[in-house]
Amino acid sequence: MDEAAGAAMGGDESTAATGAKAKGGATVKQFLTRLLGLRVELQQLVFATFQATLDALIASAIKEGKYDAGVGDIVATSIGKTSDEVVWTDPVSRSVTRLIMLEVDRGVAWEDALGKYHVMRGEKPSQAGGEG
């Protein structure tokens, strides 16, 4: 890395992405501002290197079975709770950890699928004639 990139980095190590002071006294905001001062080519290099490193770390974590994708949305036509049990209770705070099992239907209802089939064939509902 050239001198401009080194100056932009400032040798500081950020401890949080919240603007908290890092070891050298610079904040994350200052670090990002310094990045903006780099030539576009160097910015692209910094972010490409960051992305490659992140991708490699994620791939490694997935391979080792340690990757957690975090919280995600469940998208379905219907969702129902099938069980709810307490699996652990913290002895101090009495907070509980629950195992909740869900029944998730991500498919299409038969009636909807059949209706779409008849529409694709150019049939009117009266021509569809029920099942088939």
Structure described in brief:
This protein has 132 residues and is of the alpha+beta class.
Structural commentary:
It contains 5 helices and 2 strands, in the order H-H-H-E-E-H-H. The protein is an alpha+beta fold and 132 residues long. Strands 1-2 form a two-stranded antiparallel ribbon. The radius of gyration is 27 Å and the shape is flat.
Q: Report the order of strands and helices.
A: HHHEEHH
Q: How many strands, what sense, and barrel or not for the largest sheet? A: 2 strands, antiparallel
How many helices? 5
Quaternary: single chain
> What structural class do the secondary elements suggest?
alpha+beta
Please state roughly what percent of the residues sit in beta strands, choosing from under 5%, 5-15%, 15-25%, 25-35%, 35-45% or over 45%. Answer: 15-25%
Widest β-sheet, arrangement of strands: 1-2
Write the layout of secondary structure elements.
Layout: H1 3-9, H2 28-36, H3 40-63, E1 78-89, E2 96-105, H4 110-120, H5 125-128
Antiparallel strand pairs: 1-2
Considering the chains and any ligands shown, give keywords for the structure.
132 residues; alpha+beta; 42% helix; flat
